[in-house]
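Encode chain A's predicted structure.
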Amino acid sequence: MSRRGRRLGDGYEPHVDEVVGELIYSAPVDSGPVSTSMSFPITHGDLDVLATDPYRRAVLEVIGHAVLQRSMIRGRAPVSRADFAALVSSILHTSPAELDAVIDRADVEHHMVTRMYVDQVVQRRS
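Encoded structure for chain A:
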């Protein structure tokens, strides 16, 4: 018998579902006229951080969206499970200084002001 249930997230935002004991992080991704959702397995430790640290959860949402959206561009490689796991680790399980470095790199790579978007996500959930 399969067990399924929402563990984190509401509406049209990244969320975590439990499917037969496996945690799946799913994120809606829009790129031009194309809307899709991409899903990757995460660990219980990842979920613990997402559930208790609103800032890191928002950073994963913002940077994750940029990375996934970029992968939708023709000719770009899709994001693999290993790529996503590395991204999750670099955001959820690093020191504050390392997280700042990840954000700074994302700003340059994706031509955005990550902290501004993160603040908006945190405020939306408050």
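The CA atoms of residues 57 and 63 lie 10 Å apart.
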